[in-house]
Write a structure and sequence with these properties.
heterodimer, A: six-stranded mixed β-sheet, B: globular
């Protein structure tokens, strides 16, 4: 169209200002309705020209044009800043369309970082990996980091600033805040309270310190529902101040875990798991676990003792006494005298190479005892290190939250700012937070969701997701990472830095400027280079907190805070735990996590009241029978789930479920156990009443059967022992493997294979979510899982063995075995599943007609079928989470693990371009990449020097169901147990 | 013209008659194949009357209405299936096959009796088959039609079903010939086509009779077209007999092959409970067993309702009962061998499968299977039971249920607990599972009711050859 110069810009502006709603125009000419445009339309769309002149028809025409423009826009998946839509004249560095880029950032969970590398396709983050440079990650991530991609694109995230339910603009909010802060400034902040989760961000700490120095009467309260009050109290008791405890699992030979799941939850668990597994594979360490309900750590232990939470404390006392500490006599653990003596001897014999670890939910007494035992064993400085705390100083924990709620009750709080926390849902019941909040004049909430707390606040501001934010955060050892955004906030969210800047009265502060200005004086010169390096590497060099030598305040022993002795044996104990999938409820609206089978129970979509088989028998309840758990007049009803290995008369309840206002996915998922929880007893109720009700509740479990049925599925070898009967079975199976009517198929070039080391696997589930994210695996919902239609390409099989009350727990990741003699291939009538020349069992989706015969014939049952159109997302934005390198499967086709064939192909292309072979370790599957314990190794088995070949040459190597002659490419290394011979003998004797 | 037939028939039929007469004299205690007192004309009258009457019995309307309502249920089910996908059924992983495959095997099995009666018994010159072969063949066709629905609809993407056929295409793709499902496609389509041809060719002389006797012009035109110009000339009869015999020869191996191949769907797979060498004979015997049970289920009410006791006599029922007894024992042997092999193999998977059948969550179905399929049919040893239509009918129903349960045991109970206990699951049928099944029964009976009304359910011309009159004709000639 010829461009005309005589367009009146001012007139155009006038024309546009009169409009409301979206206005589309194709060019200024159209907007100006010039003669040229008229003639263009006439020549291009002769049939429409009439309509253009006719006011009614013209509107219709423009509507159509507008709609097609809008659709054209919708077809592009990239979110870009609105004001910059024009083609690159000079392409920015590194961007090659179709090639992803990786950016370092970090995810804060309860304030503590795990370092990430985020894969970004044309500005669209699609996959999270661990950052190898980061001390808390070393390349691994947990399930929460993996699932954060889905959380980012959650359509239920809050999208607008709201005041009493009405949408308001940011300036309106800012002016309200400014007015309130004006009042507070006069009162030196006496009426201002800011509530956040745990904060380690140096920038935010700096901002808050500045704010509090301006307003010295104001208060900043940090709390987490997963409370660490006992940890803090113990540290203050023992050392007179807050100290961070860090473990060095790479140095520990004998570890006693007291009610601790250090391998999969809590600060530094990824690193601990890595260090632990490295030594475990060599059979160099021994783990004792004592816990009320089975955890992944307990499942990995050589000796696991189920004990109620209070008896764990008694057992700690008993062991401490055995070690020679002056403590009161233990009560109620007499039955375990042999165990206690053996463990104490073992710890003592290892001296400084031993380690006692305690869970943050154990009592203050136990925490102090553990400090004492570690000091006594001489482990401090070796396997235990202390440093300054990573979180900010100041009032924190449930104690501080209680004080706040009392202040609110007293009417002392005029302005309450809740940033990134949800106290209305997760504050213990006795704080009556929602009720007391009503007395606060101005309540402001910053959060990802319009949740329970937002509902009770006057103002709600959507928070930017960490993948949309500039910020910084410390890891468990204090190492700082700069959080950099992967994309502009999808829903116009604000960071906590921006909110605090508004509180401080700053105008127009962006978090980028705030974070940069914080670091401007703190990074090495030249600033720009250091900044660039810090952002690029994902860690700020040399920011780990140095270890400190703690000074004991009091000699450990008799002065310990004494717990009230349980009233009697008829009482039930209730312990609370963060949910392994939804944590404290913040991930409740994440479908990947909701559908992730919880460790040990394999339950999805709900929490349940864990109960031991013996207690269930006594109470007459089965799985799914609703029981009522009461403490005084407070009660909770939840379906029971029988868990072998649960301590007798102990009920375990998980936090974070039963959210009332968390979004579409979370609605109806689980039971809120909050009504039982008091700030005085956040983790354990010592005397509760439990009774059966008549109700039942359907639970969706992915694995109903927990016995191996005497089959040779998970093999475990004992350190020092010769190959046992399992080993013998292995050899006969190996002989059978070569029996075939057909000549062997030669694999020249690459032959891909995988090895999974069962001695390392902790069952943490990270591989499952990583696979889901990498391979666009749909979420199917509770009803579908309940009838056996979950879609996970890799699953963790869990078996129990031995005694029902104190069983051994086995976990085994099962992806596709990529059998060389694949049973699925021969039965497919249409060649939809075929073997590649590199030995992959390929699935050709668009050839599949869906007879499901392959699934029937797969002995490993790793194939997954699209019974419905599972991939239709609830909102278009969810599509942005999809990996563009992987086909999205439609209804009626089979799918399964591909060994991440897209990653193999990418690597092959790169290698070919560089004229070389693929190097060992260059192809990393999604499950392998995130594994905290490096249990999964993938590579070329034609290369005898590859890592995977070396693993397969190990005598521990075995194939699952080898006797079927399927010749799986995925093989296992048997698990390793390193039992204490003394206890072994005692157990045999018993 | 059709009246000419006896001359033709007599030549070809000398042997059958003498055999028939011989057998009659040898086993004189058996009731006759046709009750005495019929002539050529009265046979034709009696059978064609059902078709040519203007007064459709009310019972027929009620029966068809009920069946047709179920057929509508089938259509609704299929529509919903195509709209939503196979997820509307209760299938899952590990039980990826269930009702669709059970019903497929069940229907295909039922079809076998028709082919066996029409082909093998023809070749063996068992003249008593004549009274029942026509509707048994029709039953085969309709059963195969019902069976054919399932493999098609159980696919995830049924609109691509043609990919299972070897046809030249731009994708350059053949089916995967090692898959038993491809063999199934050939077996079932062959079976359907041969059964259809066999049935139709057998109908031609009777269609000509109907054409000649039809009181209405429409009837004359329609039956005339279908009769393909049959005049009953000697040449016609010669060719007819030759074709019929050839088709019988062609069908005979199908009786064995079709269900053998259906059994390969299971036997070729390595699922415990499927992977067994006994499957082909065991399946064929089961098919004949189920098929004869279905013929009995249909014959007993039909002969009463249409007053055909003279043509479908107690002798027929007795023969069929004996065949059921024999094949039932084969099937029982199959159960025994499965159990024996589970123990003898020493395989933990096989033995735990058997254990699961006996004591697992579906054990009640296994024990019911033994009751319905093994225990109850033992009554057929007794002549008194075989001569009671009520008892026979009840036993046939029991066998039909038993054979359906057998397929349920094979398909679902084998799949739901295989190698890795971690993937064990349960299968529960949904409403749509049942509606597809009941709907297919509705379709079967709708077709059957239409057949009864518009085509002669007993072969007129062949019945005539059974009359003593036909022997007399030879003397006259």
């Amino acid at each position: 169209m010829p461009n005309d110069d005589n367009i009146d810009i001012a007139a155009l502006r006038r024309k546009l200002t009169g409009h409301s709603g979206p206005a589309y125009w194709r060019s200024l000419d159209e907007l100006a309705d010039t003669e040229q445009f008229q003639s263009f339309v006439r020549s291009e769309f002769p049939a429409k020209a009439e309509q253009l002149l006719d006011p009614v028809g013209r509107r219709h025409f423009l509507k159509l044009m507008g709609a097609s423009l809008a659709l054209a826009g919708a077809s592009a998946c990239t979110r870009q800043p609105e004001e910059k839509i024009f083609p690159y004249t000079e392409s920015p560095e590194h961007i090659v369309p179709g090639k992803p880029l990786h950016f370092a950032t970090a995810m804060p969970l309860a304030g503590v970082a795990s370092g990430l590398l985020v894969e970004s396709h044309m500005g669209r983050p699609t996959k999270v990996e661990g950052n190898r440079e980061h001390p808390a990650s070393l390349g691994a991530t947990d399930v929460f980091a993996q699932a954060s991609i889905l959380g980012l694109y959650d359509p239920d995230r809050s999208q607008t600033i709201r005041n009493a339910g009405n949408i308001r603009p940011w300036p309106a909010f800012a002016s309200v805040v400014a007015a309130a802060m004006g009042v507070q400034r006069e009162r030196r902040g006496a009426g201002l309270r800011v509530v956040t989760g745990t904060v380690t961000s140096p920038t935010l700490v700096g901002q808050m310190e500045a704010l509090l120095s301006d307003l010295p009467e104001a208060q900043w309260i940090q709390y987490e529902a997963v409370a660490r009050d006992a940890v803090r109290a113990a540290s203050r008791f023992a050392f007179g101040r807050d100290l961070e405890t860090r473990y060095r699992l790479d140095r520990a030979d004998t570890i006693l875990a007291l009610d601790s799941d250090f391998l999969t939850s809590g600060r530094g668990s990824l690193r601990y798991a890595r260090d632990f597994a490295r030594r475990r594979r060599q059979g160099e360490n021994r783990l004792y676990a004592v816990e009320p309900s089975p955890s992944n750590t307990g499942a990995s232990a050589d000796h696991r003792l189920p004990l109620s939470a209070t008896l764990v404390e008694e057992l700690a006392l008993a062991i401490a006494a055995q070690l020679g500490l002056a403590v009161r006599a233990a009560i109620g653990v007499e039955d375990h005298r042999t165990w206690i003596a053996a463990v104490a001897r073992d710890l003592q014999s290892k001296g400084k190479r031993s380690l006692v670890v305690v869970g943050e939910w154990q009592s203050v007494t136990t925490q102090i005892l553990v400090h004492a035992m570690n000091a006594h064993l001489g482990t401090v400085g070796h396997t235990v290190e202390y440093s300054e705390p990573v979180e900010a100083n100041g009032p924190s924990g449930l104690v501080a939250l209680r004080e706040l709620s009392e202040a609110m009750e007293a009417g002392e709080v005029e302005t309450l700012v809740v940033a990134g926390a949800n106290p209305v849902y997760d504050a213990p019941l006795d704080l009556r937070f929602a009720e007391r909040m009503q007395r606060v004049g101005l309540r402001i909430h910053l959060g990802l969701y319009d949740d329970e707390s937002a509902e009770q606040c006057h103002w709600h501001v959507p928070e930017a997701h960490f993948l949309e934010s500039w910020s910084d955060v410390r890891a468990y050892d204090g190492t700082v990472s700069i959080i950099q955004p992967m994309l502009a906030p999808l829903y116009g969210g604000k960071t906590v830095h921006e909110l605090v800047a508004v509180l401080a009265g700053a105008k127009k502060a962006t978090s980028y400027d705030i974070v940069r200005s914080h670091w401007r004086d703190r990074l090495a010169d030249p600033f720009e280079a250091s900044w660039r390096k810090a952002v690029h590497d994902g860690v700020v060099a040399d920011t780990a907190l140095p270890t400190v030598q703690p000074n004991w305040m009091a000699p450990p022993g008799t002065q310990l805070p004494i717990r009230v002795t349980p009233t009697g044996r008829d009482d039930w104990q209730v312990v609370f735990r963060p949910d392994p999938s939804v944590y404290d409820g913040r991930f409740a609206n994440n479908g990947w996590l909701q559908e992730l089978p919880r460790p040990v129970t394999r339950l999805t979509w709900d929490n349940a009241a864990w109960i031991s088989p013996a207690s269930a028998e006594r109470l007459g309840v089965g799985n799914g029978d609703v029981i009522e758990i009461a403490d005084g007049d407070r009660q909770v009803k939840a379906p029971a789930w029988i868990v072998p290995g649960q301590a007798g008369d102990t009920i375990t309840l998980h936090l974070g479920n039963g959210r009332r206002r968390a979004g579409y996915v979370a609605s109806g998922a689980g039971f809120d156990v909050g009504p039982l929880r008091l700030s005085t007893q956040p983790w354990t109720i010592e005397a509760a009443a439990v009774r059966k009700t008549d109700a039942t509740y359907p639970l969706a479990c992915t694995q109903d059967h927990f016995s191996m049925e005497g089959r040779d599925l998970v093999r475990v070898e004992t350190v020092g022992a010769e190959a046992d009967s399992h080993g013998a079975a292995h050899h006969s199976a190996t002989q059978h493997e070569d029996l075939s009517m057909y000549p062997p198929v030669p694999y020249e070039g690459y032959a891909w294979g995988m090895s999974i080391d069962l001695s390392s696997c902790t069952g943490c589930n990270a591989c499952v979510v990583s696979c889901q994210s990498e391979n666009n695996i749909p979420v199917v919902g509770k009803d579908q899982v309940a009838i056996g239609r979950e879609m996970h390409w890799i699953r963790i099989d869990r078996y129990f063995g031995g005694d029902l009350d104190a069983p051994e727990i086995f976990q085994q990741p099962v992806p596709c075995m990529h059998c060389e003699q694949a049973p699925c291939e021969v039965v497919c009538p249409v060649n939809a599943t075929v073997h590649s020349d590199e030995g992959l069992n390929d699935m050709v989706y668009n050839r599949c007609v869906g007879t499901r015969y392959c699934s029937n014939n797969c002995p490993y049952k790793v194939r997954r079928f699209n019974f419905f159109l599972y991939t239709e997302p609830r909102a278009d934005i969810v599509k942005m989470a999809a990996n563009p390198d992987v086909t999205v499967r439609s209804r009626g086709v089979m799918e399964k693990c591909t060994y991440c064939v897209q990653r193999i192909s990418q690597t092959r292309i790169t290698a070919k371009k560089e004229g070389r072979a693929i190097r060992d370790g260059e192809v990393v599957t999604a499950c392998q990449a995130v594994c905290p314990t490096e249990a999964i190794v993938f590579g070329d088995i034609n290369d005898p020097n590859s890592n995977v070949s070396r693993q397969k040459a190990s005598p521990r190597n075995y194939a699952l169901l080898a006797e079927l002659g399927t010749k799986p490419r995925t093989t296992y290394l048997s698990g390793i147990r390193n039992p204490n011979p003394e206890l072994e003998a005692a157990e045999k004797h018993a | 013209m059709a009246d000419k037939k006896p001359t033709k028939g007599s030549k070809q039929k000398g042997a059958p008659v003498s055999a028939g007469a011989g057998s009659r004299s040898l086993s004189s205690h058996l009731p006759p194949v046709v009750e005495p007192g019929y002539t050529m004309a009265t046979v034709a009258d009696k059978i064609s009357e059902v078709v040519l009457t203007q007064n459709t019995p009310r019972g027929w309307y009620i029966g068809l209405a009920f069946s047709f309502a179920l057929t509508m249920l089938l259509l609704v089910s299929i529509t919903w299936l195509l709209v939503r996908g196979v997820g509307i059924w209760g299938i899952n992983v590990p039980v990826a096959w269930a009702f669709a495959i059970i019903n497929f095997v069940w229907w295909i099995g039922i079809g076998h009796a028709g082919t066996l009666i029409s082909a093998i018994l023809l070749l063996l010159r068992q003249d008593w088959r004549t009274s029942i072969n026509r509707f048994a063949e029709a039953m085969t066709l309709f059963a195969v039609a019902c069976a054919g629905l399932y493999p098609l609809l159980h696919m995830g993407r049924p609109w691509l079903a043609y990919w299972l056929f070897p046809y030249p295409n731009t994708m350059g793709m053949w089916p995967q010939f090692r898959s038993p499902l491809v063999w199934d496609v050939f077996a079932v389509t062959t079976y359907l086509l041969v059964s259809l041809m066999f049935w139709y060719i057998g109908l031609i002389p009777d269609l000509a009779t109907l054409r000649d006797r039809s009181p209405s012009r429409t009837g004359r035109i329609v039956y005339g077209l279908l009769a393909m110009g049959w005049r009953g000339s000697a040449r016609h009869w010669h060719r007819y007999e030759m074709t019929y015999l050839l088709l019988a020869g062609l069908s005979t191996p199908l009786v064995v092959s079709v269900h053998t191949i259906v059994s390969f769907d299971f036997a070729v797979a390595q699922v415990p409970g499927w992977h067994a060498t006994v499957f082909p004979p065991y399946f064929v015997a089961g098919a004949v067993y189920a098929g004869f049970a279905m013929v009995v289920i249909l014959a007993i009410p039909l002969r009463r309702f249409y007053g055909l006791q003279d043509f479908v006599t107690m002798r027929h029922l007795d023969h069929m009962a004996r065949i059921m007894l024999a094949t039932g024992l084969f099937v029982a042997y199959g159960y025994m061998i499965e159990t024996f092999m589970a123990w003898y193999s020493g395989s933990v998977y096989e033995s735990s499968l058997m254990n699961n059948r006996f004591t697992g969550p579906y054990a009640i179905l296994y024990w019911s299977l033994l009751l319905f399929n093994v225990l109850i049919p033992q009554g057929l040893w007794f002549a008194r039971v075989r001569s009671s239509t009520t008892a026979l009918f009840m036993i046939a129903i029991s066998v039909s249920i038993g054979m359906w349960l057998e397929r349920f045991i094979i398909v679902v109970v084998s799949l739901h607990r295989d190698f890795l206990p971690s993937s064990w699951g349960m299968y529960y049928p949904t409403f749509w599972d049942w509606s597809m099944y009941l709907g297919s029964i509705g379709l079967f009976f709708s077709l059957l009711f239409l057949f009864l009304r518009f085509l002669p359910m007993i072969s007129i011309f062949e019945m005539r050859t059974l009359l003593p009159e036909s022997e007399v004709k030879e003397d006259l000639g």
